[in-house]
């Protein structure tokens, strides 16, 4: 008898949207329902590739948009086998950011979406079953991030850039680029936001 295939859920949004919080809440919800859950976070700080990306974000290193895109992409493709194997064994995967982040952020930096999608196709990057966009304003983003830490990274503190990325995310979500998207208003309380997400994913549990 063939094992039931798992589900791949991605949480997206600009900085401060609450991805880490909602990832934890989703994980707890799924585990309470008896599901095996794998959580992935990108950039992957535990991996050498992710460490280089963080050096760039923390302004300790300068990279061209093309180099940055290729580093992000390498961070995803290193996990292709892990993702496929986990899904085939029936696990639920929750990714706090994924290739969909790169589509939003790097397109603002001049990398063509069509080029990035072609790369994903060539390397057979696994597609999420659903990408949930936590929608907040750049103003809310800055307010939340400054509460969280004193020093923001190069993207977190750039309101104009965040505004462009927010618009890029919404365009991707409206057109269901790369995969199916759902937009959730993340200006609400953590619990209210999670309730909206729960309604989206509970059909699978």
Can you put this structure into words, describing what you see?
By secondary structure, the chain is α/β, with parallel strands linked by helices. The chain has one domain: Rossmann fold. 51% of the residues lie in helices and 13% in strands.
| Global structural class | alpha/beta
User: What's the domain count?
Assistant: 1
- Runs in which pLDDT lies below 50 for 5 or more consecutive residues are none
CATH class annotation: Alpha Beta
Portion in beta strands: 5-15%
CATH topology: Rossmann fold
| Helix coverage percent | 40-55%
Could you give the order of strands across the largest sheet? Answer: 2-3-1-4-5
Write down the overall geometry.
Answer: globular
Radius of gyration: 16 Å
The pLDDT mean sits at 93
Order of helices and strands: EHEHHHEHHEHHEH
Specify the CATH homologous superfamily. P-loop containing nucleotide triphosphate hydrolases
Number of helices: 9
Describe the largest sheet. Answer: 5 strands, parallel
End-to-end separation in angstroms reads: 20 Å
CATH-defined architecture: 3-Layer(aba) Sandwich
Number of strands: 5
